[in-house]
Amino acid sequence: MSDQPRVEIYTKEDCPYCEKAKDLFDAKEIEYETYNVTGDDDRFEEMVERANGRKTAPEVFIDDELIGGWDDTSALDETGELDEKLGIADDGDDDDVVEHRKLIIAGTGIAGLTAAIYAGRSNNDPLVIEGDEPGGQLTLTTDVANYPGFPEGISGPDLVNNMKEQARQFGAELKNGIIDTVDADQRPFRVELTNGDVYTADAVIAASGASARTLGIPGEDELMGYGLSTCATCDGAFFRGEDMLVVGGGDAAMEEATFLTKFADTVYIAHRREEFRAEDYWVDRVHEKVEEGEIEIMKNTEVIELHGSQEEGVDHVTLVENEQGHPTDRLDDPETNEFEFDVGAVFFAIGHTPNTDYLEGTGVEMDDEGYLRTQGGDGGGQTETDVPGIFGAGDVVDYHYQQAVTAAGMGSKAALDADEYLEDLERADSSVEEAEPAAADD
Ligand code: NDP
Fold it and tell me: One GO MF term, please (predicted)?
């Protein structure tokens, strides 16, 4: 369409956030041009120059204006400003109810998409709201080797895209957007998106996953996207030949460190205590890389500051080390050693926080970290929260297993539980309807 603004997206190969950016514009039916910077030095230089020194893809431009990477683009989308820039902002009354749905599913990760497949097959006509990380965390994973049925493994984005296709085949509708609030004081529930769209729904499945944690240390805000990243798969290749630091001691840290050896001069892992949380499989793989001289492990070590600039990227970090572990809790201990350490890129792999803010005020019980409490146990109703009609599945509930296959299992349970709830609701409604004419006859 010629009257839409010109949208340009710099992309690279194996870049889940680039796919998310493209999905976002596809969902808005906006045409765009893409420039792949992988292996094209001139394009890469052009991107860096136009993006004021940023070296991460995607970089999005609208009519030559720098919008930024995926985080910036989705943040603008959340406030509705992206639609304004694209000339597609809804100028109607924000408070108008757009549509009533039997079932709204929050999230298009593995849990949400599995719920959508099952709910579609049960004729519950699910509307799936993509959330601010469409496709969920698996879109950031290169190879998923342990999802049953794929003996050769499958890439995270491929698995998610297959599930999206399967969900659509069964009648699920996927909509780009982020749920801002769910009002449980009224039935049907009132579900408001951050762009002002409002739906009503008889049931809601919360499958909105969890987002990457950060440390909140000096330098973090300035350098995020300029050498600091929470996604090695996305950004590792940009720092080819540099020394890289991975922070964390779980499976993600081990997997990312192993992956980064493809690009890095040396990968350093900083972990705050002596024992790794990661399973033996990953620790063994990391130790193989240590033997080969590609990874060095720094135990009982934490980062307290990042140094660098948006023009030059990360230059060095300040680390603290204490052999008793958790050195930031022992900064006054004379045994705590503080030192500067040169690295060209830093990757945080320190876990995730559940995305459950939009359920605050609904009465759904959560733990201190924001994970939803569901019924659990044996028999039906395991995914019920303590608000009838709101169900939870995947990483918003599960702080322990957090596997794609367990998320899928919980997604299917939530759809089955929601189906039972919706059937009960329908039965109750129809018995009221039958009783009313009888009462009028009296
Ligand atoms: P985890 O919660 O398992 O690990 C987080 C790591 O970060 C821990 O080692 C933790 O240290 C450290 N950490 C947390 N907060 C801080 C902080 N403020 N400062 C310093 N270090 C910190 O998260 P992951 O993302 O690694 O894994 C989540 C789930 O996903 C797990 O169930 C995991 O098995 C799964 N997964 C599986 C993969 C695979 O098998 N392919 C790959 C990636 C993840 P401490 O140990 O001291 O708490």
Answer: oxidoreductase activity, acting on a sulfur group of donors, NAD(P) as acceptor
Closest residue by CA, ligand 1 atom 28: 351
Across-strand partners of 183? 190
Amino acid 365: pLDDT: 97
pLDDT of residue 419: 98
**Numbered ranges of CATH 3.50.50.60 in the chain:** 99-211+353-433, 220-348
The CA 253 to ligand 1 mean position distance, Å, reads: 7
Write out the two tokens for 96.
Answer: 């108008």
Tell me, yes or no, if 132 is annotated catalytic.
Answer: no
Respond yes or no: is residue 15 known to be catalytic.
Answer: no
- Whether 402 is in the pocket of ligand 1, judged by its Cβ within 6 Å, is yes
List, for residues 52-65, the tens digit of each pLDDT value.
Answer: 888 888 999 999 99
C-alpha 400, offset from chain centre: 17
Partner residues linked to 392 by β-bridges: 206
From the CB of 85, is ligand 1 less than 6 Å away?
no
Residue 146's pLDDT band, with cuts at 50, 70 and 90, is confident
Report which ligand 1 atom has the smallest distance to the Cα of 255: 42
Question: CA 262, 267, 273 angle in degrees (round to 5)?
Answer: 140
Residue written as tokens 């001289």? Answer: 293
Task: Identify the CATH class of 99-211+353-433.
Answer: alpha beta
* Domain 7-86, CATH class in plain words: alpha beta
Q: Does domain 220-348 have CATH number 3.10.20.30?
A: no
